[in-house]
Amino acid sequence: MTPMVSRRPFKRRKQSTNVAYIGLGANLGEREATIRAAVDELAARPDTELILVSSLRETDPVGLEDQPRFLNGVAMVETTLGAVELLAALLTIERKLGRDRTASTPGGPRPIDLDLLLYGNATIDEAGLQVPHPRLHERRFALEPLAEIAPGLVIPGRGQVSALLAELE
User: Fold this and answer.
1) Which end of the chain is less crowded, N or C, counting CB atoms within 10 A of the terminal residue's CB?
2) What residues act catalytically?
3) Which architecture characterizes domain 18-168 according to CATH?
């Protein structure tokens, strides 16, 4: 599998920005192509700059186990969007790439899954949005790609990504 690690030149924006980490996943269709299309959609947004993308890794499903294996990774972006607006943008990309959240089983198979894992150092608990992602600290498929691109990253209220990953060993 071709690594997706990408290091683009950073352009400082005049507006206030936040760094966010987005979980990338797919287990239906052309998984890698769909994830790459999602990353391209993120990179094309004028309010969001793609900074890094981890390599993709094949993982077993969690929860509902009777489904195809996933490809998972993480993207790091810098954005002028607020967390709620960024989540809305992610859901729009999902719909564009064929995901219908209303017609699918929660935790079931999906052509694309974009999760807002972290938004700066924010802790958010609102209807429809929890940041850090509520189970991030216990999910190897998210912690491994995070550790690849930001091993010293601290998940608010949980600890350093590399330490959390070591606890899962």
Assistant:
1) C
2) 99, 110, 113, 115
3) 2-Layer Sandwich (3.30)
